[in-house]
Amino acid sequence: MGQEALHWPARIVSEMVRLRIHERYPESNYPVTFHFEEAASKEEADINILWAEGAHGDQYEFDGASAKKNILAHTFFPGHSEPLNGDIHFDDAETWETDLTAATNYDRRFFPYVLAHEIGHALGLQHAKKQEAIMYPYYKNTPLDEIKLDLDDKCAINWNYVGTSKFCLFVWLMSEIVPIHNNSDQMASSSEVLCNFLLGLHAYRGSPEYVASDSLEKEFNGVIKE
């Protein structure tokens, strides 16, 4: 897939930025790999990360720190006009933390989680409906070792860089009209039914060990490239 280069201010801990996404997709027979390396200069970078407050020259002003829901960052899709395409901007009025124990829901933000979300946009991913997805549009305090691609995210990358998939259309349809979740009260008395467009109808009995999204992952791993 080639390499994407980044340039960032020296104040950011470099290991938090040097991310490598290496996910193998059963539909492709080869790994989809993105290598992120620090660029020597802004001009050489494919993705530039900027911290700014308020108006900062791109027609999308930041709204400052707030205890309410507000804009933490924005990213320009790869198809946006140069030189902003792929660039990531963070609101410098926010207090950013690289230590989760120092982060709170509103007044201190956990930088790695927001960075992972914005890198998704830089790669062309749009917002997801599924709450477990990295591309879900609302901030969450998620530990660094738990920041992983959800099936919804994998489908988005697969769609952009490998090809279209009826299975992924199904995943997104489920996210739209039938939220995939298990409630302990529901599991005691009901089964959860998932309809796969490619493999027929599958019924899964709800149990304390059962997670619907895990079942979908197993289906994803068995889909043949269309």
Automatic annotation (TrEMBL):
Q: Name one GO molecular function term.
A: zinc ion binding
The UniProt entry, under SUPFAM superfamilies, shows:
Metalloproteases ('zincins'), catalytic domain
Any one biological process term the GO annotation gives: collagen catabolic process
**Which positions are annotated as binding Ca(2+) 3?**
63-64, 91, 94
Gene Ontology CC: extracellular matrix; extracellular space
The record, for InterPro entries, names: MetalloPept_cat_dom_sf, Pept_M10_metallopeptidase, Pept_M10A, Peptidase_Metallo
Sorted alphabetically, the keyword list is:
Calcium, Hydrolase, Metal-binding, Metalloprotease, Protease, Signal, Zinc
Q: Which domain of life is it from?
A: Eukaryota
Which Pfam family, any one of them, does this sequence belong to? Peptidase_M10
Q: Detail which positions bind Ca(2+) 2.
A: 46, 87
Q: Which residues form the Peptidase metallopeptidase domain?
A: 4-163
The UniProt entry, under Gene3D superfamilies, shows: Collagenase (Catalytic Domain) (3.40.390.10)
**Residues annotated for Zn(2+) 1 binding in this entry:** 56, 58, 74, 89
Q: Provide the cofactor note recorded for this chain's UniProt entry.
A: Binds 2 Zn(2+) ions per subunit. Can bind about 5 Ca(2+) ions per subunit.
Task: Tell me the active site.
Answer: 118
Q: Does the keyword Metal-binding apply?
A: yes
Q: Where do the annotations place Ca(2+) 1 binding?
A: 92, 94
Residues given in the record as Zn(2+) 2 binding sites: 117, 121, 127, 135
Q: Which cofactor does it need?
A: Zn(2+); Ca(2+)
Q: Which family does it belong to?
A: Belongs to the peptidase M10A family.
Full protein name:
Matrixin
Organism, by scientific name, is Ancylostoma duodenale
